[in-house]
Amino acid sequence: MFLYFTQRILNNILPVHVAQYFLEFRNNMDLYHQSYSKVGVCFATITNFQEFYTEFDGNNQGVECLRLLNEIIADFDELLSEDRFGAIDKIKTVGSTYMAAGSNLL
Asked: What's the CATH number for 35-106?
């Protein structure tokens, strides 16, 4: 049971292949690393989203703000599923920030 929760936590904060490396080689104290000649990282955020987000009757107690955020995130996810963006992986969404990264890009 402990390993299951450990795996879920690691998979939530690390790429799956890196989490698997640490789970399989727990006695290995070497840090995991990979080298790439070209790397790109994208952070897309809605500036001042917390100020934009309001809970009042006009926007259904904040649901409309969250619906807009979800639509934007879903659009990014859909774009990244296209073949032309195959070298880019979604890393995480935290609040109103979307993080993606790619390696060996043109």
From this structure: 3.30.70.1230
